Amino acid sequence: MPPNFHADTPLAQRMRPDSLAAIIGQEHLLAAGAPLRRLVEQGHLPSIILHGEAGIGKTTIAMLLADAVNRPFHALSALNTGVKQLREVLDSKDSLAFESPVVFIDEIHRFNKAQQDALLGAVESGDITLIGATTENPSFSVNNALLSRCQVYRLEPLTPEQISAVLQRALSKDPILKKLTIDLQAQETISQLAHGDARKALNLLELAIQTADAKQSPIIINDELVSRVAQTALVRYDKDGEQHYDIISAMIKSVRGSDPDAALYWMARMLVGGEPADFIARRLVILASEDIGNANPNALLLADAALRSVQSIGMPEARIILGQVVVYLATSAKSNSTYKAINAAMALAEKDASPVPLHLRNGVTKLMRNQGYGQGYAYPHDYPNHYYPQSYLPENLAGTSFYEFADNQREQHSKQFMAWLKSQTASND
User: Confidence band (pLDDT; 50, 70, 90) for 2?
Assistant: First the structure.
């Protein structure tokens, strides 16, 4: 066993790669000609942010990048590092050293603005090379000033084939496991439970081996054993990070696309992952207006009622209400005509500030009436069908149209009514 390891060292730590070439996965960054491989071959390492799920190699890659360019490596965790400790590390740089040290900060998204700002000067001056690791999208969790000084690289979850390669290497190379005779029958199950996380896969393998009957030869690691030690597949859902945005987006697109099954699945992912039910309900209220609108006005009423019900009832019963609403919305007629109309009106309003025509103003004082406020306004309720054709837009915008009736039954019915209303007025003239 290597001298840095002892009998209690976890398998995942024992199997940590000792060179960039030994890393399984991340070929888009580390294969020949890939960005990170080119950088280290040129002896250059800029400040970078490594973004990706847990257990896919961010810390290992950071250590090996520093080693590949022969730089000192300082590892910090954002979970237990304050501004004071951070400044001590930044100020400890040897002024005679030619190359800047690599400062690795795990969970950098947990640094607050003051802590992130403390890094700016050292990164910009080149006193340190920063490698930040985050499970969240840096666009949401790292401030723009720091982000602009770093290259961002996304790491991908390992494929089932890559997880299998990690497991097989552990069985054949680990100094403890290679002494045992192990029949790994649950490779696919471990891969499914790991969800692309190499550390989780190795932890499951190790736990299964420790749980198995050691008197057997070979030691059989089957699906039943792995499922028992795993108990349940932990749901990968970060309700404060990128998964939060990705999965709510998937749910909304599924409802918009009239697929109730997919909408239910993505909503269930959020609920099981701990997403607050009222957040989901609020998004459904917005969707009911944006994507259904006047094709089915009841959708907004039902979504709003669901929001109030969810807030008063809470989980787990709120899932029933949300399930009903998401199916109703997904199977409803769709229209974004009013959404487009208000956007078009607001876009014009940002550029045009025409005065309100006098006939539309309220002449509440004698002076206002003398100035023409309200003169010429026809009160529609005084006319047949409660309608009188008159201009309601500024003169320079006369004839401008924002709203167009969509091709659904309800809006087409409204279109026909408006056409009839105008035709009745014309026939009376």
Answer: very low
SS3 labels along the chain: CCCCCCCCCCHHHHCCCCCHHHCCCCHHHHCCCCHHHHHHHCCCCCCEEEECCCCCCHHHHHHHHHHHCCCCEEEEECCCCCHHHHHHHHHCCCCCCCCCCEEEEECHHHCCHHHHHHHHHHHHHCCCEEEEEECCCHHHHCCHHHHCCCEEEECCCCCHHHHHHHHHHHHHHCCCHHHCCEEECCHHHHHHHHCCCHHHHHHHHHHHHHHCCCCCCCEEECHHHHHHHHCCCCCCCCCCCHHHHHHHHHHHHHHHCCCHHHHHHHHHHHHHCCCCHHHHHHHHHHHHHHHHHHHCCHHHHHHHHHHHHHHHHCCCCHHHHHHHHHHHHHCCCCCCHHHHHHHHHHHHHCCCCCCCCHHHCCCCCHHHHHCCCCCCCCCHHHCHHHCCCCCCCCHHHCCCCCCCCCCCHHHHHHHHHHHHHHHHHHHHC
Average pLDDT, integer, range 310-333: 92
Dihedral of the alpha carbons of 116, 119, 121, 122, in degrees to the nearest 10: -170
Is residue 266 within 8 Å of 254, Cβ to Cβ? yes
CA pair distance 354, 356, nearest whole angstrom: 7
389: closest CA among 425, 415, 358, 413?
Answer: 425
Query: How many whole angstroms from its chain centre is CA 28?
Result: 22
Q: For 332-356, how does the pLDDT look when each residue is reduced to its tens digit (9 = 90+)? A: 999 999 999 999 999 999 888 889 9
Query: pLDDT (tens digit, 9 = 90+) per residue, 385-424?
Result: 999 898 888 988 988 889 899 898 988 999 999 898 888 8
Summarised one tens digit per residue, pLDDT across range 221-248 is 998 888 888 875 444 555 556 677 888 9
CA distances from 343 to 49, 346, 350 (A): 36, 5, 11
Single-letter residue type at 404: E
d(CA 153, CA 134): 11
Retrieve residue 17's tokens: 């790669």
Is residue 14 left, alpha or beta, with left meaning phi > 0 and alpha meaning psi from -120 to 50?
Answer: alpha
- Locate 286 and state its tokens: 């917005």
The mean pLDDT of 75-82, rounded to a whole number, is: 76
Q: Would you call 123 exposed, middle or buried from its count of C-beta atoms within 10 A (0-12, 13-18, 19+)?
A: buried
Most confident of 35-39, 68-72, 327-331: 327-331
**Bridge partner residues of 153 (DSSP):** 50
